[in-house]
Write a structure and sequence with these properties.
This protein is an alpha+beta fold. The chain is about 40% helix and about 25% strand. Among the domains are: about 100 residues; about 180 residues, no CATH class. A hairpin with a 2-residue loop joins strand 1 and strand 2. The radius of gyration is 30 Å and the shape is globular. About 5% of the residues have low confidence. Keywords: Activator, Nucleus, Transcription, Transcription regulation. GO terms for molecular function: nuclear retinoic acid receptor binding; nuclear thyroid hormone receptor binding; nuclear vitamin D receptor binding; transcription coregulator activity. This is Mediator of RNA polymerase II transcription subunit 1.
């Protein structure tokens, strides 16, 4: 068989194979001690050069395309690609032999930060996910105004972050799981996660067992600390607002200066607690938030009944004439009873504020609402099916922060009522009404189960098991 025929057959055999498959085949052949291994080694080196050049060009091409799509400047300096925005620069160092050596992000007036997650995405040539991360970065640094205004707002955000970290009770050592949960739920600033290359400063402020899961699996409510545009001008700090040394009578709450006594400037922006995930808040809580910050969150103040807002896809109507009622695994929440001003709510995705001292007070309101939401969700969300009940329960609002559960007693031909009170996120209790239900130890047990599980179905199961 002549050489041309051999090459033609080889070409046909490998025409549909990838370069990596061909590359591996050549490498395998070179490992065998044959007299024709030397030419294959030469071919392998050539293939390596072509693949490296192709990989480097591919990465440069994608980086330039993504920079253009995001409205960023792009230029190449030797083996480094730079993607530049007003407030940060992303540097991608390429290896001479192909591949990516490092990815660094440099905030305005800051130091370069190594970005391991972005580095791994480029090495894996996962350009779609890298583009998504780039979008998140731009959102994180998406500050309104001209360049001078952006720099002023960014400077103020940095000073706020420093004050919040000083205010935080986050320990210097690694916490065990119980201490970590206590810090999230009870700490003055919750659990503060410092800003890094991929994420802004984040506050975790409330955690409960995830619905329908083991107690070790937690749902954590958090908020990113960012800054956003505002139609109105607001006075924002241009220096730390924290009094040094930061001590008070209770040795817990730092003392802040009012903005009138701190270098500041009126700017077209506000600090933001960007809630993750967005939260339903009853309208009276939104009003309380506004009274603390002096800024009204951008939400629909007409609102809808809280259970309806909470379900958002979980509710199912059994009859057309009962379309406003929420039904879920034995629980009924009559629409007319919940459609009252005290129970109207709106989904809030960010809360504007202007001073670091606002944050602890805001977190307390958000924790309070989180506790209410968790208890109601345990009845109306799909996760309630994890604890099936054979009885029918009617949930009625009693006040902004309490509701009752009415049900048929299994041990008697009469009704019983479980009254749930959520005074705040740390003070949750229940009372049991009905003939033969005045056992203090039983009520204490139910309150304990309710507080630990944050689940009405589990509390009712505990009640039935005692009777």
């Amino acid at each position: 068989m002549n050489a041309n025929l051999i090459l033609e057959n080889l070409h046909l055999k490998f025409a549909n194979k990838t370069w990596n498959e061909t590359f591996n085949l050549v490498r395998t052949c070179t490992e065998k001690p044959m007299e024709w291994s030397k030419p294959l080694c030469s071919a392998l080196e050539r293939l390596q050069e072509v693949l490296n050049a192709s990989s480097t060009d591919l990465i440069r091409h994608h980086l330039q395309r993504m920079a253009r799509q995001q409205g960023m400047d792009f230029h190449i300096s030797e083996a480094t690609c730079c993607l530049t925005a007003d407030l940060f620069r992303l540097e991608v160092a390429l290896l001479p032999c192909g591949g990516v050596e490092n990815v660094k992000l440099t905030p305005h007036a800051g130091f370069p930060i190594h970005c391991e997650s972005l580095l791994q995405l480029l090495r894996a040539e996962n350009f779609s996910e890298f583009s998504a991360k780039l979008t998140d970065l731009l959102s994180q640094y998406n500050i309104p105004g001209d360049k001078e205004t952006k720099l002023r707002l960014f400077e103020s955000l940095q000073l706020l972050s420093q004050d919040l970290q000083c205010m935080s009770s986050l320990p210097r050592v690694q916490l065990d799981s119980e201490a970590q949960i206590q810090l999230i739920n009870d700490g003055l600033m919750g659990c503060l996660k410092a800003a890094n290359a991929d994420h802004p400063l984040t506050i975790q402020f409330y955690s409960v067992p995830a619905p329908g899961s083991n107690a070790s699996d937690l749902f954590v409510q958090g908020a990113q600390v960012t800054i956003g545009a505002s139609d109105a001008m607001h006075k924002l700090q241009l220096a730390s607002a924290l009094i040094e040394p930061a001590v008070t009578e209770d040795q817990r709450t730092p003392v802040f200066l009012p903005l009138s006594e701190v270098p500041h400037q009126s700017l077209p922006g506000c600090f933001l607690l960007r809630l993750q995930p967005p939260m339903p808040l009853i309208l009276s809580f939104i009003t309380k938030i506004s009274s603390i910050t002096g800024v009204l969150p951008d939400v629909d103040l007409q609102g809808e009944p809280l259970p309806k807002v909470l379900t958002s896809g979980y509710a199912k109507s059994h009859k057309e004439d009962e379309k406003d009622a929420v039904f879920s695994e034995g629980f009924i929440l009559p629409g007319a009873a919940w459609d009252v001003p005290a129970q109207r709510a709106a989904v809030v995705d960010h809360i504007p504020f202007t001073h670091p001292s606002h944050v602890p007070a805001l977190l307390e309101i958000l924790r309070h609402q989180s506790a209410i939401n968790a208890l109601l969700r345990s009845c109306v969300a799909k996760a309630a099916a994890e604890y099936p009940v054979s009885d029918l329960y009617e949930l009625l609002p009693e006040s902004e922060t309490s509701f009752s559960v009415t049900f048929q007693r299994r041990d008697a031909d009469s009704l019983a009522v479980l009254l749930v009170n959520i005074t705040d996120s740390r003070q949750i209790s229940c009372k049991l009404f009905g003939a033969g239900t005045r056992d203090p130890s039983l009520v204490e047990m139910l309150s304990s189960v309710l507080t630990r599980s944050m689940s009405v179905p589990l509390t009712l199961m505990a009640l039935h098991s005692q009777r």
